[in-house]
Design brief:
Radius of gyration: 19 Å
Largest sheet: none
Oligomer: single chain
Order of helices and strands: HHHHHHHH
């Protein structure tokens, strides 16, 4: 009997996937939302860039920028789901990667009153794009998924940036990363 238990457990795990495969199922919507920021290089780079930029800021900006981004992105998703279309979404996403890359390369430290609205404006485009690409997924679970994934990517960028030393080599590394992001953003416009 004990030798059958692992096989039975494996069979149940495999069979459970077909039960979750129906459109609109909350678990699948959550998984699809979570996977979305990882599946597109534009979203992936923008999320990492927010974390990289926030980590080099002072005070409350270190946490306010990523939190503001995620909350604005979720709000924009709700507005987009309600039928309000945001124009030039793809250009806004490309601009987010380009501008954040340039800010990282320049080692810019804007006041929170300037950087937070800028980051939040980029989040509007990302939220609208997520909804446009959600298909049949349920909005709440899908939004929870892409919100969690975005926060995780912000944290990854933040942790990487915090590990770079405040030396001349560290500053060069930051500039190279920023210019690479800006270059990717420019390519996204093409």
């Amino acid at each position: 009997m004990r030798s059958i238990r692992p096989l039975l457990a494996a069979g149940l795990v495999v069979a459970s996937g077909s039960a979750l495969a129906h459109p609109g199922h909350e678990a699948m919507s959550l998984a699809a939302g979570f996977a979305h920021p990882f599946g597109g290089v534009d979203h992936l780079l923008a999320m990492l860039a927010v974390g990289l930029y926030a980590a080099r800021q002072n005070g409350a900006a270190r946490w306010a920028l990523p939190v503001g981004f995620v909350l604005t992105m979720l709000a924009a998703a709700g507005v987009a789901q309600a039928g309000f279309a945001l124009p030039v979404v793809e250009a806004g996403i490309a601009a987010s990667v380009l501008v954040l890359g340039l800010m990282i390369a320049a080692m810019a430290r804007l006041p929170l009153a300037a950087s937070l609205p800028l980051v939040m404006s980029f989040a509007l485009f990302h939220g609208a794009a997520h909804v446009a690409e959600k298909g049949d997924a349920g909005l709440l679970a899908y939004a929870a998924g892409f919100g969690a994934a975005s926060a995780l990517l912000h944290l990854a960028g933040w942790l990487v940036a915090r590990r770079v030393p405040e030396t001349s080599a560290g500053r060069r590394t930051q500039q190279i990363a920023g210019f690479a992001l800006a270059g990717a953003g420019a390519l996204l416009f093409a």
